[in-house]
């Protein structure tokens, strides 16, 4: 992950990063599917690129799955005021800190997992404003699918202090069968139960799913197949737009959505 232009909004998602094995395979797939352009930014942790949509950086891709022996997966990073204190809070509440906290460019980061096994990251960096991109190619929604949404909401709420923050800026509410975090009037993350207990695929376990905006989900599903990806959830209408689940050629899970409001 690179910190160059990542703003830290405490307790809220601030960045998404893909750990891949082969950078060319990843950039070929996502460039064609999501219309991304790429800026190379080599780091001491291996090759790294930032995905750019109309001049705005929207995600990162690193070779962490090869260089650091991490899983091929998308990781959501949450902003924190102090990475070391947050890492200690994660451990105290039954989570795991797998990597870090460590210095990275102009901030500090750590890779963690919650008590249910869902991986996520924390990022301490330059403070910024809460924003939400609605454009095609950008991550427009982050959602944890887990076995117990309320237990997960308690864990994240305690780690990130959601109930202790200014209620004019932070709100946790129940909507569309999900626990939803609202920051500055924007729904930024959801937590819901289901979709993991009976999964035959061992790769389908509690995890944070990143939803990327596309112009047309059905067309994007067909393009995914042509590009060597798989479909894990056929297109369907939802409360947040038309959605589908896909897997990239190296196995990373993600979701796509069109008509997201």
Features:
18% helix, 261 residues, 8-stranded mixed beta sheet, globular, single chain, alpha+beta
What does this structure look like?
This protein has 261 residues and is of the alpha+beta class. 18% of the residues lie in helices and 42% in strands. It is built from five helices and 16 strands. The protein has helices at residues 23-34, 64-67, 83-92, 149-160, 217-226; strands at residues 13-19, 37-40, 48-53, 56-62, 73-79, 96-104, 107-113, 119-124, 139-146, 170-175, 178-183, 186-193, 207-213, 230-238, 241-247, 253-258. The longest helix is centred in the first third of the chain and has 12 residues, at 23-34. The mean pLDDT is 86.
Structure summary:
The protein is an alpha+beta fold and about 260 residues long. About 20% of the residues lie in helices and about 40% in strands.
Kindly report how far apart the N and C termini lie: 28 Å
Output the number of helix runs.
5
Radius of gyration: 17 Å
Unreliable parts:
none
Mean of the pLDDT scores? 86
The outline comes out as: globular
- Sheet with the most strands, sense and barrel status: 8 strands, mixed
Structural class: alpha+beta
Helix proportion: 10-25%
Q: Name the beta content range.
A: 35-45%
Major sheet: order of its strands?
2-3-4-1-5-8-7-6
Order of helical and strand elements: EHEEEHEHEEEEHEEEEHEEE
Query: Would you count the extended β strands for me?
Result: 16
Describe the SSE topology.
Layout (H helix, E strand, L loop, with lengths): L12 E7 L3 H12 L2 E4 L7 E6 L2 E7 L1 H4 L5 E7 L3 H10 L3 E9 L2 E7 L5 E6 L14 E8 L2 H12 L9 E6 L2 E6 L2 E8 L13 E7 L3 H10 L3 E9 L2 E7 L5 E6 L3
Parallel strand pairs: 1-4, 5-8, 9-12, 13-16
Antiparallel strand pairs: 1-5, 2-3, 3-4, 6-7, 7-8, 9-13, 10-11, 11-12, 14-15, 15-16
């Amino acid at each position: 992950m690179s910190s160059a232009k990542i703003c830290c909004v405490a307790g809220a998602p601030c960045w998404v990063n893909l750990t891949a094995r082969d950078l060319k395979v990843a950039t070929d797939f996502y460039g064609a599917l999501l219309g991304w352009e790429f800026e190379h930014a080599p780091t001491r942790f291996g090759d790294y690129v930032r995905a750019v949509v109309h001049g705005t950086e929207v995600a990162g891709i690193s070779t962490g799955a090869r260089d650091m022996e991490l899983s091929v997966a998308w990781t959501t990073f949450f902003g924190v005021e102090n990475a070391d204190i947050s890492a200690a809070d994660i451990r105290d509440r039954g989570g795991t800190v797998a990597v870090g906290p460590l210095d990275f460019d102009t901030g500090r980061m750590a890779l963690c997992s919650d008590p249910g096994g869902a991986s996520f990251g924390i990022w301490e960096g330059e403070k910024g404003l809460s924003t939400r991109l609605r454009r095609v190619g950008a991550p427009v929604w982050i959602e944890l699918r887990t076995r117990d949404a309320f237990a997960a909401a308690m864990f994240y709420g305690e780690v990130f202090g959601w109930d202790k923050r200014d209620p004019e800026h932070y709100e946790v509410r129940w909507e569309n069968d999900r626990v939803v975090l609202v920051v500055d009037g924007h729904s930024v993350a959801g937590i819901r139960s289901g979709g993991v207990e009976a999964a035959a695929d061992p790769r389908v376990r509690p995890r944070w799913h990143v939803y990327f905006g596309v112009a047309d989900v059905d067309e994007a599903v067909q393009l995914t197949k042509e590009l060597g990806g798989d479909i894990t959830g056929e297109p369907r209408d939802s409360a947040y737009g038309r959605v589908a689940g896909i897997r990239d050629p190296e196995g990373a899970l993600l979701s796509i959505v069109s008509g997201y409001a």
